[in-house]
From TrEMBL:
Lineage summary: Bacteria, Bacillati, Actinomycetota, Actinomycetes, Kitasatosporales
Protein name as it appears in the record: TldD/PmbA family protein
InterPro entries attached to this UniProt entry: Metalloprtase-TldD/E_C (IPR045569), TldD/PmbA_N (IPR035068), TldD/PmbA_sf (IPR036059)
Signal peptide start and end residues: none
Residue ranges annotated for the Metalloprotease TldD/E C-terminal domain, each copy included: 225-456
UniProt-listed Gene3D superfamilies: PmbA/TldD superfamily
Highest taxon above the source species: Bacteria
Length: 462
């Protein structure tokens, strides 16, 4: 089976199925990575993997039940037992609340029968020599570089008993780079998301980190409090991704989220920001392309296995400052009476701003400039109050100039509330959300100016 093409595995599993309905998803994954510490490469490697998911549906008098089984490294001998296990799980399950007819009528992918796309160490052909130059320059400048580069390519094949034959290639890469002073008392971070590492310049990142380490040579202690704060794109992405994870239409209708209207209903149509902010997703967004159809390995609060293959259209979640959509499956759309809006594979915040972060700093009389956020946790779902920490550099700006590094803080803020208080948005640019980079990397955000960001306590973190 290891030499079988993924589409052949999908077809064979569908042939073996005796259930009323069947969905088969084959995911072919390859990764390449580099790691470094102290201005020297430490490890590199390439991996390959295959995962097969079988979703069986069984009709009964009280409704349709489903069973899901996922296994890796499936051999020819394992395939039929895998299908039978999914069928047994379906026959032993209660009717699925989200049961819908399996999707039909979606044109087949023309490359469905082609072999999977694969990455290799060649993806770093231009990046690795430039990284070596960055090591040399950092060494000469008295700083040490730590970090990693990871590239992943996942090809997903989706076949159903209703005739769907779909395929999607999803490349994704992340670079995280830390610069530290030799005594480890100063640290600065930069991160990038990329599809192919052709648009990542480690020398430029090192130059920026060198400037930040220079700012940190002067240390200023500040107390907790509310400060005018410039949130860079990475921090905005981390906050708004969490906001979207909390944007289920069903939960809002049932009164469980920040998007629930007091007294019943949702806040759809309500103005969330005085700025003309549009938060949107689009599978065809250049440089942030994502699956144009639903790929659901199981059902959950915000995804339904019955929706596999359902087209994912471009969606405005917030349009010109107003809440426009909450995400739904077909089931929850019927349940709530709201439009279908499948989950999101990328997230873009358009604000119409033209200023770079540097220009926003130059226009700041007194305030804080953050590098990134981490350890973000939810405190109150009703308001979406989040807490977390700043990390790797908080800088004091006075009269348009960075005058030194201040201590880290714990913050308490709701991203929904922040949008209502934001007084300026910069230029939208691709960014890597640091906190959520293991789960979500395709984002483009502007920097935001918050007049009164709540730094609730001082943190001793670096």
């Amino acid at each position: 089976m290891s030499r079988s093409k993924p589409h052949e595995i999908v077809e064979r599993a569908l042939e073996l199925s005796t259930a009323d309905g069947c969905v088969v998803i084959a995911d072919e994954e390859s990764t390449a990575n580099l790691r470094w510490a102290g201005n020297a490469l430490t490890t590199n490697g390439v991996t390959r993997g295959r995962t097969l998911t079988v979703i069986a549906t069984v009709d009964g008098k009280e409704g349709t039940a489903s069973g899901v089984v996922t296994r890796s490294a499936v051999t020819a001998e394992d395939l039929e037992p895998l299908v039978r296990a999914a069928e047994a799980a379906a026959r032993g399950a209660a009717p699925a609340e989200d049961a819908q007819p399996l999707v039909t009528g979606v044109p087949s992918s023309p490359d469905f029968t082609d072999g999977p796309a694969e990455t290799s160490s060649a993806v770093f052909a231009d990046f690795a020599p430039a990284l070596g130059e960055a090591f040399a320059r950092a060494r000469a400048g008295g700083r040490e570089l730590y970090g990693f580069a990871n590239h992943e390519l996942v090809t997903s094949y989706v076949g159903t008993s209703t005739g769907l034959r779909l395929r999607h290639d999803q490349p994704g890469g992340t670079l995280e780079l830390n610069a530290k002073s030799p005594d480890r008392q100063r640290s600065a971070w930069a991160g990038r998301a990329t599809r192919d590492f052709k648009d990542v310049d480690p020398l430029a990142l090192d130059a920026d980190l060198a400037v930040r380490l220079g700012w940190a040579e002067r240390r200023i202690e500040l107390p907790a409090g509310r400060y005018e704060t410039l949130l860079p794109p990475t921090a905005v992405a981390d906050l708004l991704i969490y906001q979207m994870w909390s944007a289920s239409a069903r939960d809002a209708v049932e009164g469980r989220t920040v998007f629930s209207k007091p007294g019943g209903g949702t806040r759809l149509g309500e103005r969330l920001s005085q700025l003309p902010l549009t938060l949107r997703s689009d599978p065809a967004e250049p440089g942030l392309e994502s699956a144009p159809f639903v790929i659901a390995h199981s059902s959950g609060d915000d995804v339904s296995a019955f929706d596999n293959g359902l087209p994912v259209p471009p969606t405005d979640w917030i349009r010109e400052g107003q809440l426009h959509r909450l995400f739904t499956t077909r089931h929850t759309a019927e349940l709530t009476g709201l439009p279908q809006a499948p989950g999101f594979g990328n997230l873009i915040l358009d604000a119409g701003g033209e200023k770079s972060l540097e220009e926003m700093v130059a226009a700041t009389e007194r305030g804080l400039l953050l590098t990134c956020l981490w350890y973000i946790r939810e405190v109150d779902p009703a308001t979406l109050l989040l807490t977390g920490l700043t990390r790797d550099g908080v800088y004091l700006v006075e009269n348009g100039q960075v005058v030194g590094e201040v201590n880290n803080f714990r913050f308490n803020e709701s991203p929904v509330d922040l949008l209502s208080r934001a007084s300026e948005a910069g230029r939208t640019e691709k960014t890597l959300p640091r906190e959520w980079s293991d789960w979500f990397t395709r984002a483009a955000m502007p920097a935001l100016r918050i007049p009164d960001f709540n730094m609730s306590s001082v943190s001793k973190g670096v």
